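It is worth pausing here to work through a concrete case rather than discussing structure prediction in the abstract. The textbook approach is simple: state the sequence, then state the predicted structure, then interpret. We follow exactly that order.
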Amino acid sequence: VRSIIGRGLYVLFLDWWYQRFPQENVYVICTEDLRDHPDETMSKISSYLGLPEFDFTNVTNKGMYNVGFHTGYDTVTSWEEIQEKSMEDADD
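Step two, the predicted structure:
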């Protein structure tokens, strides 16, 4: 139960940002979208920022950076390793 409640606490942080910036200047994405649809999500972020179109496939096909069990942006975590860790966590 605590993990479900804890996951909902992000609203408190969003409230802080919305008090400081107009809501249209804050772009929120779900980590699930970034994980499940990385190219599409990255394209939406780029578009929101007004950046030129870019093919993120080379980057997103490698895996993810800065995931819970590998912090930092110098080490890529493969999609296979992410899947294995998710399965282990589900078993716990």
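Step three, interpretation. The longest strand covers residues 64-65. The chain has a mean pLDDT of 82.
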